[in-house]
Amino acid sequence: MHIDQLLMPDIRVAAIRRVGPYGPQIGESFTKIFNWACRQNLCNGSTLGIGAYYDCPSNTEPEKCRMDACITLPEGVDPVLEDGIEIRTLAGGICATCLCNVYNNDFCASWDSFSGLLIQRGAQLDLEKRPCLEIYYGPCADSSIFKKWVVDLVKPLKEYMD
After folding, report:
1. Dist. CA 157–CA 42, nearest whole Å
2. What is the pLDDT of residue 141?
3. Nearest to residue 126, comparing CAs of 117, 138, 118, 137?
4. Integer angstrom CA distances of residue 61 from 49, 57, 64, 133
């Protein structure tokens, strides 16, 4: 597993907040945001889906875990919002990233491996101010013949690692 470090820009998104255990139910929020975005003619080759995760399930009760199902928005576009959809800015900054192939929706294994490597390298995370992200590339794994997600896992850092 290869880890990159980069200075991520602010990312303007449309988002739906979901509170509850992380898991398959998150897909419902992504379905809602993408259906809305398609009706608004916002889906194109540069639109990305992003999951923003604000709480670690190992130290937050599952019922209180917060996440946003997001899609990227171009600057200057102000779509008509529907109930539960908000325009937000995901704050940029120094991040550790890892491009992963996730098979059969096993995101936990990828996060565990990524987190373990960051601990080994002594990473100082900045989790109070910025969420962890999953940036999705390509089709949903459920519609892929390979049952594979291509995703960047992103953790915010306080400073660059050695």
Report:
1. 31
2. 60
3. 118
4. 26, 7, 5, 19
Going by the DSSP 8-state scheme, the letter that residue 123 receives in this structure is: -
pLDDT at 139 (0 to 100): 63
Q: How confident is the model at residue 117, as a pLDDT?
A: 95
Look-up of token digits 């997001």: 70
**Based on the number of CB atoms within 10 Å of its own CB, is 120 exposed (0-12), middle (13-18) or buried (19 or more)?**
exposed
Q: What are the average pLDDT values for consecutive 10-residue runs of the chain, which has 162 residues?
A: 95 96 88 93 90 92 95 90 94 97 88 95 93 87 76 97 88
Q: How many domains does the chain have?
A: 1
Residue 132, CA distances (Å) to 36, 51, 85, 88 in order: 24, 8, 20, 15
Q: Is residue 104 part of a domain?
A: yes
Can you spell out the DSSP letters for 129-162? TS-EEEEEESS-GGGSTT-EEEEEEEEEBSS---
**Domain that residue 50 falls in:** 4-156
- Note whether residue 161 is domain-resident: no
